[in-house]
Amino acid sequence: MTRATSPLSASLAPGLYLVATPIGAARDITLRGLDILGAADMIAAEDTRTARKLMELHGISRDGRQIVAYHDHNGPTARPRLLAALQEGKSVAYVSEAGTPMVADPGYQLVRDAHDADVPVFAAPGASAVLSALCVAGLPTDRFYFAGFPPNAAKARETFLKGLKSIPGTLVLYESPKRISELLKACLIVLGDRECALCRELTKKFEETRRGMMSDVLTSVIDHPPKGEIVLVIGEGAAEVASEGDIEAALREALQTLKVKEAAAMIAEDFSISRRDAYQMALKLGDK
After folding, report:
1. Are 168 and 240 in contact, with CB atoms under 8 Å apart?
2. Localized where (predicted)?
3. Who's near 139: CB < 8 A, 6+ residues apart?
4. Domain tally, the chain
5. Is residue 162 in some structural domain?
6. Residues 239-283: pLDDT tens digits?
7. Residue in 287, 191, 285 with CA at minimum distance from that of residue 245
8. What pTM was computed for the model?
């Protein structure tokens, strides 16, 4: 079992450090994040150009240190090099292109492999588009579900959204400006006309939040297409209460292939009713 303790000394203890970087405003990086970038033996970056620019902006010298590219396309070849450095007792700071590593980010497998190699893993938290959007959306945050980017294909997107329909909480999705209107149309069909907030260019000069019912936000998007990075925050749907007729119809269909007890158990789970009530209803239908 890996036991990681937070390093407090000026010199950086060996381990993998996940450093959150700004999603827009360059000053949205923590002092600790800057300290880690300045002290790490090696830096891994989803985009090395962005990492260099950030370091230059904050006066952090490379001092001959390596800045290694680590992204979706080179993960299998880059990970062994990073893990070798970690196993040698070096400190490695990993930064994604923007925001918090591990959130819609290629760092997952690197962290898994680091744990498997018994290497300490530390987080230097900071900017996150998910949390920033939840802050400004004006929707409940006691329970939320981050679903990332929906699939591009229409059928796959529909299946994806159906899987989110019954989640008891606020939904958070990422989307590009080119596909946001299609996503909103699909959401209206699958999820219904819920309250939502379209947040774009968070923390940047042209930051904007469009709030309202989804149908109104869609109209706004069609009339005034948004630009930049988009986070879509969707309110929880109202609980659907099935009618007795709907339950009976489902039971009749289930009884064609299942025994009474099995059919009742399945329908009770599908419609969130008690097994006793479903069983009694199934018995009555069987007598007719």
Report:
1. no
2. Cytoplasm
3. 170, 195, 196, 197, 233, 234, 235
4. 3
5. yes
6. 666 678 888 888 888 888 888 888 889 888 878 788 888 888 888
7. 285
8. 0.80
